[in-house]
Amino acid sequence: MITTQNNQQFTAQDACPCESGKPFKQCCEPLLEGRSNADTASALMRSRFCAFVFQRWDYLSRTALNSDPNEEIQQYSADKIWCSLKILKTKKGSEKDTSGEVEFVAFYQRQQESAPKTLRQHHEHSHFQKIDGLWYFTQGLAMDDIKPDRNGNCPCGSGKKYKKCCAQ
Q1: CATH number of residue 94's parent domain
Q2: Domain interval for residue 13
Q3: Distance CA 41, CA 159 (A)
Q4: What percent of the chain has pLDDT over 70?
């Protein structure tokens, strides 16, 4: 059993927080635990999102090229509850490539915010490089926020439509 930053209990059988649709134990858990490596830039991006969810700063440092962002990342993420991830676009980054790009939106809420909590987002265009068979995050460029689909599921994970949940 794993505990997230908001003390949510999470088992390996639960759906992976990266929203791949796979159980955590078959998706990002082996990557976070160092039992396997990401096959694609997108898989590394998803596993890095899970590292934020579970506050696995060691994994974020281990998968970043030319930097040790540990302290900076911890400060940035300290008051955030990471809710969901949406991959918007990928460019290259397949098993055969040596570089790739992933555009994504990660939705979060602030821990100390009183109810109702506002759903916020981190929209980024990330760059990745494959060296000696291993994918690494090289840089991320923050982008303008996008608006969630009113009729889609709320990114906060409540199971409600966005218009009936965080959009109110």
Answers
A1: 3.10.450.50
A2: 2-164
A3: 28
A4: 90
